[in-house]
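Predict fold of Vacuolar calcium ion transporter; 473 aa.
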Amino acid sequence: MPQNGRAEETTPLMGNGNGNGSVYSHHSETYDFFFNLWHTPGTESEKPLVKFPAKFWHIIKATLLRSKINILLFCVPFGLVAGMTGVDPVAVFVINFFAIIPLAAVLSNATEDISAKLGEQLGGLLNATFGNAVELIVSVIALKERQYAVVKSSMIGSILSNLLLVMGMCFFFGGIKNMNDDSGAGTEQEFTDITAQTTCSLLMLAAASMVVPSALSMVMQSSANKNPDERQQTILNLSRGTAIILLIMYAFYLNFSLRTHHNLFVPKSKQQPQRSPGDEERADEEVPVEEEEDGPLLGAWASGAVLVITTVLVAICADYLVDSIDSLVERANISRNFIGLILIPIVGNAAEHVTAVVVAVKNNMDLAMQVAIGSSIQIAMFVTPFLVVLGWIMGHDMTMRFETFETIAFILAVLVVIYTVQDGKSNYLEGVMLMAMYVIIAVAFFAAPSDGLSNEDAGLDAFKAGIKSSIPA
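Predicted 3D structure, encoded as tokens:
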């Protein structure tokens, strides 16, 4: 049992909330030096030659031992060496692929520690931003290399991964764990209604911003004037204007959810029930006292240093990964769309996947929805428009005209999610539905060749059919 509100040594994932290493310990100093995430002997010493090396070791230890997935960190030096020596490109891709997974987890943990120091509003924004840091870094590097198909596929793939795979796993495992109430009757998990309503509206706006450039391209392609240069310039102008509008819309969304109407997004578990005057005497018996939340493992400066170093490593590994894509496509017969749509989002969202599922099992669906859908909204309304504007600045013709099949898959996924979350409730069957939809899309992109998906002249009828099917009856 914790004493004085502090975590036991046997619960390394829990802390005392102050991060100063003052914990109640039954273990020796040797154990604390190597395995205690919350305390390292010597950090409180007055001797600089003892204090600073101890603090440096504490940062390394707390970073490496924080998550089991960090065992894959051994791939990082191998990935860097493989990229610098120019060995087999497929090997470079595979090694750096697995190297980015633990780096994404370290990035997420460091961001959480910094967020705890900044407060709920700024911390939530920072957490969401750096949660998509891997996809952003990979996309910027791919944009620099003019790998537009990889950039667009990774954006769509990240959204689909969060909406279908992550949310589906949250609904499934959370629904299985919290399947019955106290009486044994079947029950559903709930989340705030405003989350569902805002989500539906913003996702439809994101879908429309993708459909309009693609539809205009198809219309101009089927018209009498089929000048490809004129069509490309028109789509480019439309994409840049749409990107600016989406960035402004995202700023309004942040102001709405984090400042002016943040009270509407308070989780139901934290909302105070209304009481009558006669209930005051029974208040302590009716409302259990919640335990204090865990504090950050590292301080703000230490977390910032870890954040900077990890971001640099992710950028280097991502650079090698992107450079090896062409060889992987040619030799392994895997389409660029599948790499961008499925593989890269899985790498970038690995830490978020675990976090969302864990909190869903704990019946905190509001936080799970914030991780899954909040990240999707940021990708659709901030990261993608930002890449279009960045390409504009860099002189690259990055547009928001996505391939026909990707657009249809995104629209159908958004519709399935909207019909699933609009009631503010979830169960494990809905989780199975979302995961099944994701697997179907993944298999389709794995089976389809890149040249077939990249052909603009093909698929006009399929695009029209997808638009028609997206309109509710």
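Strands lie at 189-190, 425-426.
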